[in-house]
Amino acid sequence: MEIVRYSSDKAAEWNAFVAQSKNGTFLFDRRYMDYHSDRFRDFSLMFYLDGALFAVLPANRVGETLFSHQGLSYGGLLMSAETTTAKTCQLFAGLNDFLRGESVGTVVYKPVPHVYHHLPAEEDLFALFIVCNARLAGRDVSSAILPSHPVKWKRDRHYAANKARTNGIVVKRSDDFETFWTILSENLWQKFAARPVHTIDEIRLLQSRFPENIQLWAAFTPEGQMVAATVLYICGDVVHAQYISASELGKKLHAVDGLFDQLIHNVFASARCIELGTSNMPHSNDLHDSLIYQKEGFGGRAVCYDTYEWTL
Q: How far apart are CA 30 and CA 263, in angstroms?
């Protein structure tokens, strides 16, 4: 097995592999990953077996620590359908030897959550245990809905969705990211003294590169005023809510409930999974009770985003 650091001249080969991998999403396409390349020292790796590309690892480096990329919500080894457990264990043994030669002392690894797998793809988790003696360093909780196996909505969510209909809330796809970014930014600042991960220019850039993968769905008053919206990342048959927010008027009109009533039961009813995002501060036990209560009220149930760590 040969291990090679990624370089920009390999972008086409990298992207082609990600597109056919069994656990990749468009977030690993270099046109997405590299929008913030100035913030990270890229240390992505490509693994060749008998001369053919076998797997890729999106990664960056800080000092003597290798991270499976800090600019992404999840990462880990991306594998083809032909990947087997024995070969993955061989790969991690080779990876550890390679990293020692690069003076890397610690690896922080975020596997792709199973809901994004096109085929079973947890060979890496077995190799982490057998080869790397990795420890679980962090666990965040998201909420996911399987439209084919719906969980009954909580009564207050039903009530709120009905109120949204009574209030004349209209749900449709929009291109007005600027208005939503104002709503989102004000909410995040008031609640958490935080700002969106992406600037408006960044989300506009990414949406222009992936127009069908990144969609804005919004709730409007009968007069046409946007009062709530969500930015959705469409990853094959999985729909991920990257951002959700409502204005003060939208909260009074129960616009988020009306929005997700339409998205879950109509617009994306044929999706395999609708994933609503995490509800705790990263790598902490600080669970936002009201946030996860709302998501579970829509029928969402837990999917964990794990982080592993090992030393070399």
A: 29
